[in-house]
Amino acid sequence: MIHIPKAEYTRRRKALMAQMEPNSIAILPAAAVAIRNRDVEHVYRQDSDFQYLSGFPEPEAVIVLMPGRQHGEYVLFCRERNAERELWDGLRAGTEGAIRDFGADDAFPITDIDDILPGLIEGRDRVYSAMGSNAEFDRHVMEWINVIRSKAHLGAQPPNEFVALDHLLHDMRLYKSAAEVRVMREAARISCAAHVRAMQASRAGLHEFSLEAELDYEFRKGGAKMPAYGSIVAAGRNSCILHYQQNDAVLKDGDLVLIDAGCEIDCYASDITRTWPVNGKFSPEQKAIYEIVLASQEAAFKQIAPNKHWNQAHEATVQVITAGLVKLGLLQGDVDELIASEAYRAFYMHRAGHWLGMDVHDVGEYKVGGEWRVLEVGMALTVEPGIYISPDNQTVAKKWRGIGVRIEDDVVVTKQGCEILTGGVPKTVAEIEALMAAAR
Ligand code: GLY
Ligand code: MN
Ligand code: MN
Questions:
Q1: Has 41 been annotated as catalytic?
Q2: Active site residue 71
Q3: Residue ranges covered by each domain of the chain
Q4: Which of 44, 121, 172, 433 is least buried, going by the fewest C-beta atoms within 10 A?
């Protein structure tokens, strides 16, 4: 299995600690277990920031980073080994495993954190944490601080600055290393295979969930624990619902089906959309819309390179989509004026993409100092233009209504431009029709 190597977690912790102010401490909690219903839990997914710094896959754990501390800069609180719990729920690293396998300098049982952590915080000037994103953890931090305050008469020094960790950490996460790109390529490769399989299986009379099952099969067979987000399998008019999740309608002859789905490998997402005809052959109207979306995506790729700014790709899609809609008579007027008045938003109401990484909508600022961010090598993003003609749009001829098309690929900015990670699924009309014809 392709995964992030242990040395990279060490490098990340060092890089973060190098940016922290002197005499400070960073504290990050693992994701909590979420109850699905009664005795059933949701599949556990580690918190992305926690995972990024540790690779430690268990709940009930806390990372503590103390740059410059002589007795070890990286302390991990985690669950202890427990023969009975491990018999029921699976193995735990325990404090020994945290040191041996996960590079902690020191590890303590999570049950001892209230006794130990105030002592580690005491005397440090600043505390870095993800303030505001986890109310329960914020409360714990304040309790630990109050323990120190209560000992002020004994000379204990509580920290006097609290700093949001997100800015430093999320900027690091925005730039993908070679190892991260390798993992993202693997997630993309498996997701491409899933889309190909769903295309080949597409038949009128099946349900949307039948195609979802084809996706899930490839995801799991490829080693993905789960999809990176709820798969969207939207046939016919459902393709005009941007975050459709019901996935239970029948696939009808003559309709399109839009699938937006990608798996997650070692906590890195892929995010692919393809749209194809259920019966394997585009109608003239479907093809006309499809060709515009495809051309807009190609125009966007040309705007992704170092020194181009974040919005240039979006602007390229708006230009091509607006001109295309005018050409088909779906919008009337001057292209520049229709762009200025955002008339295209009746058909294209989302942006051309987002950062991609451990979170499908990944962290990282889109603007810096009020200006669109300039792209740099290693940034990963999606390119996903679409046209959605509402089934209820009375301003267009009936033949266009209910057509929804999105095409989405994942790219990484390179020195020359960008690398498309998700090129392994057919995308042109001819390629899609050929693949589907061969599967019939
Ligand atoms: N799958 C969600 C998105 O494309 O942003
Ligand atoms: Mn996306
Ligand atoms: Mn998507």
A1: no
A2: no
A3: 6-173, 175-438
A4: 44
Tokens encoding 43: 């599949």
Global pTM exceeds 0.90: yes
Which residue's C-alpha comes closest to atom 5 of ligand 1? 361
6-173: CATH topology is: Creatine Amidinohydrolase; Chain A, domain 1 (3.40.350)
Cβ 333 vs Cβ 326: under 8 Å = yes
Pocket of ligand 1 contains residue 410 by CB under 6 Å: no
Report whether CATH 3.40.109.10 matches the domain 175-438.
Answer: no
Distance 408 CA to ligand 3 centre (A): 6
The residues facing 269 across adjacent strands are 264
For 9-31, write each residue's pLDDT tens digit.
999 999 999 999 999 999 999 99
Instruction: Tell me, yes or no, if the two domains 6-173 and 175-438 fold the same way.
Output: no
Q: Based on the residue annotation, tell me whether 371 is a catalytic residue of this protein.
A: no
First vs last Cα of the chain: how many Å apart? 33
Q: Residue 322: name the closest of 303, 358, 346 by CA.
A: 346
Q: Tens digits of per-residue pLDDT, 373-399?
A: 999 999 999 999 999 999 999 999 999
